[in-house]
Amino acid sequence: MKIRKNISTRFSGDLYVSSVDSSRDGLEISKQFAACKSCGSILSIRGIRLCVSCRGFLCRECIFTINTNIFCKECVEQLYPLQVYEYAILRFIDYIGSATAYDITYMLGIPLRSSRLILSSLANKGYIVSRGWLIRRYIVTVQGHAVMTLYRRIYRDFEPFQ
Length: 162
Description:
34% of the residues lie in helices and 25% in strands. By secondary structure, it is of the alpha+beta class.
């Protein structure tokens, strides 16, 4: 009797599955392993975490936890969109406490019009709030701090302020 082993690694597959199939020419044993969606490492049964949004498998190093829910990097970027320049300005405002558009223009070397557009984009997303009547000062909100904490892991290579 001929025994064949077919071990295949599936990167978007199901949980660990083992099946035995008897056919005319012998016995076939198939094993499929679950792999992390982000890094591709093979997961054990205890190490599997599922993304709430896309239901993809994740390892412990690749999960992002938001309000006790587990998300992958792609789903975090869809739920809370934040570009690298918006992240830099958000970190700058958090670093100095509060900032005006002129502070951002002077310290980061961005044109005034661009800094105002980025600040209005961040304010529309709810990450910062403006205070003041004559001179508007921007302060990071609680949601802005949460998003900044998430994106600190995503933009770990780009840290403007240590």
